[in-house]
Amino acid sequence: MKRFILMLQFLTRIPINMNLDVNEDDFFEGVIYFPLVGLIIGMFVVAFYYIGTILSDKLLGAVFAVIIEVFITGGLHLDGLADTFDGVYSNRQKDRILEIMKDSRLGTNGALALFVLLILKIVLINSLKVPDVYAVLLLMPIFAKLNVVLASRIASPARKQGMGNLFIGKVSTGQFLIAFIIAIIPSLIFLKIVPVIGLMLIFSILYVRHISNRIDGMTGDTLGSLSELSEVAFLLFIVILFR
């Protein structure tokens, strides 16, 4: 339970007033709870989507769903997305890319990535049919977080030090399998999602390969970027397969 609370504090801004006695091992051991944290986030997303539809229509529901996720996560992964796009797609050498990613200033590539991603989320969520949309929104953060666990399992760290090094290259196959089982259980409410699960894992593997080709590994920023891009990929796969 301590490690689950730790992951909830780490990945969200949900106010939990508990001072935990933890060490570095608690972080990478707690990685199995990533999908469970995703489930908590998904519950908020579903609730606010429903509120938006009650107040107006599906479009407002989609806007509310996106806004509450940004609020709940504190924009943690969006920051990683912006830093990744500013650095990786700056067409520089590895050392310079890593320097750019550490820069707190928002560049053009990062701003464009944020804008496009948020718009895509709203449009894709708005295109989903009721009642499927509720299951999709619940499961979306779960499998995005599972992709982060998989990436941490198969990648190596691009930096000698960094927040991402708490997880990258330290996750075992057993931990990934436990996280996978945790992610699969909620998906039983929406069995036709099964083909999408495979596509999501493939997406994670291809993303890790792509980023590793540029900077010889992964960082905390690229893990955050993967989480955000995985949500868009999840929605896109749903829209394409079930249109």
TrEMBL record:
It is an enzyme of class 2 (transferase). It catalyses: alpha-ribazole 5'-phosphate + adenosylcob(III)inamide-GDP = adenosylcob(III)alamin 5'-phosphate + GMP + H(+); alpha-ribazole + adenosylcob(III)inamide-GDP = adenosylcob(III)alamin + GMP + H(+). The keyword Cell wall biogenesis/degradation does not apply. It is found in: Cell membrane. It is a multi-pass membrane protein. One of its GO terms (cellular component) is plasma membrane. GO terms for biological process: cobalamin biosynthetic process. Pathway: Cofactor biosynthesis; adenosylcobalamin biosynthesis; adenosylcobalamin from cob(II)yrinate a,c-diamide: step 7/7. Its cofactor is Mg(2+). Its EC number is 2.7.8.26. Keywords: Cell membrane, Cobalamin biosynthesis, Magnesium, Membrane, Transferase, Transmembrane, Transmembrane helix. The chain crosses the membrane at residues 31-51, 106-128, 134-155, 176-203. One of its GO terms (molecular function) is cobalamin 5'-phosphate synthase activity. Its main location: membrane. InterPro entries: CobS (IPR003805). Belongs to the CobS family. HAMAP family: CobS. Joins adenosylcobinamide-GDP and alpha-ribazole to generate adenosylcobalamin (Ado-cobalamin). Also synthesizes adenosylcobalamin 5'-phosphate from adenosylcobinamide-GDP and alpha-ribazole 5'-phosphate. PANTHER family: ADENOSYLCOBINAMIDE-GDP RIBAZOLETRANSFERASE. This is Adenosylcobinamide-GDP ribazoletransferase. It comes from Maledivibacter halophilus.
